[in-house]
Design goal:
Elements: H1 2-29, H2 51-54, H3 68-76, E1 84-88, E2 91-94
Antiparallel strand pairs: 1-2
Length: 97
């Protein structure tokens, strides 16, 4: 009985996770409309690092760890020497690059 309940809970989690990922991927796709478009999507949730979740994502989706400014500069092929402009203590705003 406990194993059956556990299986149902696991299946429900998988279904809910799949539906949520489907919506996330749909939102990511909105950044790219033409073949020549490029977009970087930053997912700020540690659940995307779980093997079970990553297996549900498209295989061509790349994950990167490191300095976000350096990674984005490399991705877009631009220099981002001063990408952050400090407005007030503890507040950061991205400047136009």
């Amino acid at each position: 009985m406990l194993l059956r309940a556990s299986t149902r809970v696991g299946e429900r989690y998988d279904l809910e996770t799949y539906e949520a990922l489907s919506r996330v991927l749909q939102a990511c796709g909105r950044a790219i409309r033409r073949e020549e478009d490029r977009a970087a999507v930053i997912l700020l949730d540690s659940r995307y690092l779980e093997a079970k979740v990553r297996r549900m994502l498209p295989p061509d989706l790349r994950f990167a760890e490191g300095d976000p400014v350096e990674l984005l500069s490399d991705f877009f092929g631009t220099s981002m020497e001063t990408p952050w402009k400090l407005q007030q203590e503890g507040e950061r705003i991205i400047t136009g690059h």
